[in-house]
């Protein structure tokens, strides 16, 4: 299948390990990604200021995708949710679409719709599927213990995620981890919010949210926390040292992106998958894989 | 909290919230507090209490809501929205409240800076030659900014 790869703002400048591993694993599994250089911010950051602006920015990206006649694959939970929500609103509300198109006209664009938007994990789940991934696994990650973190916008609002996964009993990520041969750990803070959206307003509140999960994962000795969102990464990887210091504890939880794990299982090398860019190195995991 | 005189309240505030996109659910809240029970922020900072914010809005405590720091603490996790028996969609109501606060001039400095970035770069992070050279070395395509579109739309 073909899709436009939507990188968003954060991934292409701060999470190149995520981007590299997405592109490589997609290629290995028969997903053809095309780039659209005119894509910009998804609009979600503007939603607190003005929801109408946020919708307009999302619609701009959707209109660009429509011109290319392709669906959109996003890598950030918030980008995926914002773009999918915008498509949902515009496709169900002709008056709203008319208003938005009046403004898009200023920049020479138009959205008719529908344009489909899915997160990379959803593409893996729905387009590739566990069976095909299983066949493609050449280096099963035996003995590796991984903790999935879905992130809020992966699962909610359920209006947008219905038919994919459940906010109460999520399973897609755990199964996508299990198919690599690793053990997906079930743990009590699995569904915790990372706190990323609050970081700009109150660092202590944001850190308090992320701290619970890091503390539990440190205790149960998972080889790594597995993420699929750069927002969650800011909290769990970027803030981890600060959080440990504030709590006065010695926490060290390696943080990886799911496609990096998948890539290892597909036989790709840690270097190709950008593991050098992980700031809290999953040293034990890599040692086990390369043994 | 200090006692409020009735005539200091703005009974039209709930209508103002309800008229914003996503704000209409406010009217049907029956105060069960399921939202507060699942909120990840409330246990960490008691000032952010979804049910209390709804009550304040319904009572017309416009200034106390719009000028409060705590309205910016919503993590937009959508937990409240999932459990609400009345389909209030409180995460969306909070966006409506924040939009009104911005319209009244209550804008946290970080958010104002984000809007400037969007208008100047069309992205949250500026992409310079440094970033593009790093991308090129890794075989990744160049990122091109389109600030003109964002400046025209915002």
Structure description:
- The complex is a heterodimer of chains A (291) and B (154).
- Chain A is an alpha/beta fold.
- Helix content of chain A is 50%, strand content 10%.
- Chain A has 14 helices and eight strands.
- The longest helix of chain A is centred in the N-terminal third of the chain and has 18 residues, at 51-68.
- The mean pLDDT of chain A is 97.
- By secondary structure, chain B is mainly alpha-helical.
- The mean pLDDT of chain B is 96.
- The interface between A and B is large, with 52 and 54 residues.
Briefly, what is this?
Chain A is an alpha/beta fold and 291 residues long.
Q: Which stretches of chain A are poorly predicted, pLDDT < 50 over at least 5 residues? A: none
Shape of chain B: elongated
Order of helices and strands of chain B: HHHHHHHHH
Instruction: Bin the helical content of chain A.
Output: 40-55%
| Mean of pLDDT of chain B | 96
The CATH architecture classification of the largest domain in chain A is 3-Layer(aba) Sandwich
Please, what is the oligomeric state? heterodimer
CATH topology tier name of the largest domain in chain A: Rossmann fold
Note the total helix count of chain A. 14
C-alpha end-to-end distance of chain B: 38 Å
Q: How would you sum up the major sheet of chain A?
A: 4 strands, parallel
Number of separate strands of chain A: 8
Output the structural class of chain A. alpha/beta
- The rounded Rg of chain B comes to 20 Å
Order of helices and strands of chain A: EHHEHEHHEHEHHHEHEHHEHH
* CATH H-tier superfamily of the largest domain in chain B: Alpha-helical ferredoxin
Biggest sheet of chain B, in brief?
Answer: none
- How many β-strand runs of chain B? 0
Q: Any idea what the shape of chain A is?
A: globular
Which parts of chain B are unreliable, with pLDDT below 50 for 5 consecutive residues or more? none
